[in-house]
Amino acid sequence: MLRAIVIKELREIRGIALLIAAAYLYLAMVSANPRLLPFAQGAMFTPFVHQDFFTIWFVWISLAVVIALGLRQTIGESVQGTYPFLFHRPSTRNRLMAAKLAVGSSIYLACGALAILAVGLWAAAPGTYHGPFEWSMTVQTWILWLATTVVYLGAFLVGVRPACWFGTRLFPLLAAGVLMFGVMMMYYLTYWPWLAVALILTIDAGMVAVIVLVVRTRDYS
Amino acid sequence: MPDVITTDRLTKYYGSQCVVDSLNLRIAQGTVYGLLGRNGAGKSTTIKMLLGMAQPSYGRAEVLGEEATQLRPETRARIAYLAEGHPLYRWMTIRQAADFTRPFYGDRWNQPLFDRILDHFELLPSRRIRRLSRGQQAQVALALAVATDPELLILDDPTLGLDTVVRRDFLESLIQIIQRRGRTILFSSHILNDVERVADRIGVLVEGVLRVDCPTDVFRQSVRKVHLAFDREPPAMPSCPGVVSHHPNGRKIELVVVGLGDAHRELFESLRPCRVDVMEFNLEDAFIEFTRGRRKTVPIFAEEEAHA
């Protein structure tokens, strides 16, 4: 049963998944070799240094893909009118939605993690990085990587929560953005990574609880 | 026979609008129940509340002995549901749709039956659903529903958007499926001929209120159209139980009456008409008259008739 849902989800988001993988791959390649970037001939990037090219673009790409993914997974069902079909399958709504969330988040978290690891491995290789490199320098990027889960859940909530587009529909996404910004500000002020991780996971848990509540109580018409 | 579906004052509001109003419904096992009503009468909302797809504002519903808002997966497996418009994943092939559905039902899934139904409808499993016509999509949805060997089949306007020939074929198939003993079917429709062919009991929803709940034949026989003709301006029509609608038309009053009896006849005589005509309806006319509500007469025609 779980396999059927996972396969269905994977098939539905495979286009976005390929796009995500391609975007991260290109970003990793450009970070290692700026000559691949048409407008930055002769530039030298130093990944994982505060607000470097890789981290900034990693955040923008991540935000774009998690919003696209969250909306595709939820609004896709609304547009096709398949929520009644899906939720009449003999399973709990929680399980069905958990499978959706698990597949969606796994895809972009895995792609993002591979991009960070690839650039990290490149930077760790002798003769490639313009300065001393420690893996601890990647902590900021890993926290950003995890913090995008908040935005993914916000986008997911936009799709499942019935509201007017010209009203409060985008409110969860806005709230998620503010929360992510707040967590990162807290991290930049304190440099306590585990506090940031704990905060992100707490916010994620809260957003998942709201998703569960909305999915369980909303009308599917 | 035990009741498969029971509702108790089931009510649904969307904002301030009451869509389903205090619905009390009982559907016994083995019944083929046609839920009739015009567009927006509350049929789909009722069905959605029965399946937990919409939350009631008040009241409750039980399906197969369980609270409708909390159906367990095991109970849901005993219910097949064809939603309005037959929503399926359009990117799937028919085979993929079956592969997706099968694991949820375990031993209940009847693959040979599914294959036979596809064969009956001349559908190839490799065909992509988005390439199928609406009628074929309805057939795939029906095949997926029936292959789960349901005890209760709920169909929300299953023939909506299908042309006459496809609708007839679809209903023929449905009748064959119904012939399995003990299976209960609830289906909504606004097409009377569909109901007449299939249902042995009907309910008529008018603006969210269940106005009729009886065997199909009883409904047909109990609704009458009465014309009261006057040689003067018609008097005001007093209200009376059973008079569903009345409207003046020139020097006549046209009434629709359910369960025409002595009380009605006495009322008509008290108005001193010069002629009383009582007419029978076929099911379609009965339904139309019953659900139409207030009818407007085009003024120019009313004047012409009055001068005639």
Describe the structure.
The complex is a heterodimer of chains A (221) and B (308). Chain A has 221 residues and is an all-alpha fold. Helix content of chain A is 74%, strand content 0%. Chain A has helices spanning 2-32, 53-80, 83-87, 93-124, 139-160, 171-190, 193-217. The longest helix of chain A has 32 residues, at 93-124. The radius of gyration of chain A is 19 Å and the shape is globular. The model of chain A has no long low-confidence stretch (mean pLDDT 89). Chain B has 308 residues and is an alpha/beta fold. Helices cover 34% and strands 30% of the residues of chain B. Chain B has 11 helices and 14 strands. In chain B, the strands form 3 sheets. In chain B, strands 6-7-8-3-9-10 form a 6-stranded mixed sheet, sandwiched between helices. In chain B, helix 4 (111-120) runs antiparallel to helix 5 (134-146) and helix 5 runs parallel beside helix 6. The longest helix of chain B is centred in the middle third of the chain and has 15 residues, at 164-178. The A-B interface holds A 1, 3-4, 7-8, 11-12, 80-85, 87-92, 217, 219-221 and B 44-45, 48, 51-55, 73-74, 76-77, 79, 81, 83, 85, 87-91, 99-105.
Which short descriptors sum up this protein?
heterodimer; A: 221 residues; mainly alpha; 7 helices; 74% helix; B: 308 residues; alpha/beta; four-stranded antiparallel β-sheet; 11 helices; 14 strands; 34% helix; elongated
Write the layout of secondary structure elements.
The complex is a heterodimer of chains A (221) and B (308).
Chain A: H1 2-32, H2 53-80, H3 83-87, H4 93-124, H5 139-160, H6 171-190, H7 193-217
Helix pairs in contact in A: 1-2, 1-4, 2-4, 2-5, 4-5, 5-6, 5-7, 6-7
Chain B: E1 3-14, E2 17-28, E3 32-37, H1 43-50, E4 58-63, E5 66-67, H2 73-76, E6 79-82, H3 94-105, H4 111-120, H5 134-146, E7 152-156, H6 164-178, E8 184-189, H7 192-198, E9 201-206, E10 209-215, H8 216-222, E11 223-229, E12 243-249, E13 252-258, H9 262-270, E14 275-280, H10 283-292, H11 299-307
Helix pairs in contact in B: 4-5, 5-6
